[in-house]
Amino acid sequence: MKSLLAFAIVTFFAVTIVMAVVFRDRRARDTLRFLRNVAYGYIIAIVLIAAWRLWLS
């Protein structure tokens, strides 16, 4: 089951990147931009949680 989910995620990213780069699809570029912003938010959240744990310990 995990391998199927991983395969689906990799396929989604591959198709989206191909659509954004090769076909210059605006919706695909917007999706990649959104995912980039989500990744930045996730990284910031991890850093803030680490700082919070350091502060409390």
UniProtKB/TrEMBL annotation:
Transmembrane segments: 39-56
Keywords: Membrane, Transmembrane, Transmembrane helix
Superkingdom of origin: Bacteria
Name under which the protein is recorded: ABC transporter permease
Organism of derivation: Tepidiforma flava
